[in-house]
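Meet my pick.
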Amino acid sequence: MNLDPFRPTPFSTLRLNANTVAGAAPTLLNLPHGGGTQVRLWNRGTVPARIEFGNKAAMTLPDATSMALPAGAVEIRTLQQGERFAAILGDGGAPDVEITVGGGF
């Protein structure tokens, strides 16, 4: 596990400010192949956001049982092998989430 401070990969931030549409989950930017890569999640919005990561654009969309990211929160998550796509859902409003690929905590 890398306990160094988080360092972003250049040109790797994806901003999602609308609920993900079925079959259209975007690919994370400049993501290296293999598992163990970290992403920094920042909920820029005023409502909690639900987030899921998957291995295809037609991935399962987030629901009430998905990981919640409170408004204003910043979290680091380690991706599993094959997780290259992201989907978000705002709880009661439009989400506004930035996902940055990098390494460290």
Summary: The beta strands are 7-16, 38-43, 49-54, 67-69, 74-78, 85-90, 97-103.
